[in-house]
Design brief:
With 281 residues, the chain is an alpha+beta fold. 44% of the residues lie in helices and 17% in strands. It contains 11 helices and 11 strands. It has a 6-stranded antiparallel β-sheet with strand order 1-8-3-6-9-10. The protein is globular, with a radius of gyration of 20 Å. The termini are close together. 33% of the residues are buried. The model has no long low-confidence stretch (mean pLDDT 92).
């Protein structure tokens, strides 16, 4: 990008042909009239509808939009790549930017926005490529980011373990348990162990964890293990059987079944899809 702050590509096309990739710069990607396209971000794989908006702020997070079953003759894609740090060491560390910093942090795993959020910023995004003055283009884009940061319903896509993001939590008890799971996912993990770490009875801790995170403890552990397994499928040449056992699954057929149900691909399909098309920009 050189000395430019923004790179904006606003195009109409009939198909997606770019391979799965990752890059140093951050990216906001909007896709319109592309129902049936498969969006892959990290270990998340979803078929999108007519409107899709995703923010990615990790240089290591692979992503791609694949043609899949889309038959649209007029797909619109607006890609904004930007190269500025929203951290606490500069202007963005001040209070007006708090919600943006929080959003950018979450977007390290890929952040997908709901339709009301898209409609809220659509007119600004639609006209962004026609703003000729660089200062006003940056100003308009910052407004887009700010408005998105104030919307409800955005959801992360990739798992923390796949995206290599440190676990966070508002509750000290839950954070201690999450850190323990992250360090010991390859071993057998018992509810009694985790409850002891949290200083609670097993039944009370199960309820507390579900109430605090909105997820069952067993589902959380499975998702963490699957994230590490997906990362190993991409980054290593270990066999699927080896990866299964390295990530705490003691039954290969069970691992294959759970992986396909959660990720939409079998482990071998997931690995093949990444390896045949992976590009670092």
């Amino acid at each position: 990008m050189g000395k430019d702050v923004l790179y904006i590509a606003d195009r109409h096309k009939k198909e997606f042909t770019y391979p799965i990739h990752n890059h140093e710069v951050f990216e906001l990607n909007y896709v319109e009239h592309a129902s049936g396209v498969r969006r892959i971000v990290g270990d998340s794989s979803e078929v999108i509808g007519d409107y899709d908006l995703v923010l990615i702020t990790s240089p290591d997070l692979e992503h791609v939009w694949e043609q899949n079953t889309c038959t649209s003759e007029d797909i619109r894609e607006i890609t904004v790549q930007f190269d500025f740090n929203i951290n606490e060491d500069n202007l963005f560390g001040r209070n007006p930017f708090h919600s943006m910093r929080k959003m950018m942090n979450e977007a390290q795993k890929g952040l997908c926005f709901p339709l009301p959020a898209i409609m809220r910023i659509y007119s600004m995004l639609d006209s962004l490529s026609s703003v000729k003055d660089g200062f006003y283009a940056v100003q308009q884009f910052l407004t887009i980011l700010y408005e998105l940061s104030k919307c409800n319903g955005a959801r992360t896509l990739a798992s923390s373990s796949f995206a290599k993001i440190a676990v966070e939590d508002d509750s000290r008890r839950v954070l201690k348990v999450k850190n323990y799971i992250s360090k010991n996912y390859m071993e057998e993990i018992r509810l009694a162990q985790l409850a002891e770490i949290a200083g609670m009875s097993p039944s009370a801790f199960s309820r507390f964890f579900k109430l605090h995170t909105g997820r069952n403890l067993s589902d959380y552990i499975i998702d963490i293990r699957l994230g590490y397994a997906a990362r190993k499928l991409v980054d290593t040449n270990h066999s699927i059987s080896e990866i299964s056992f390295e990530c705490g699954f003691n039954n290969l057929s069970n691992f294959n079944r759970i992986f396909k149900r959660k990720k939409g691909y079998s482990p071998s399909e997931f690995r093949e899809n990444y390896h045949k098309t992976r590009v670092i920009v």
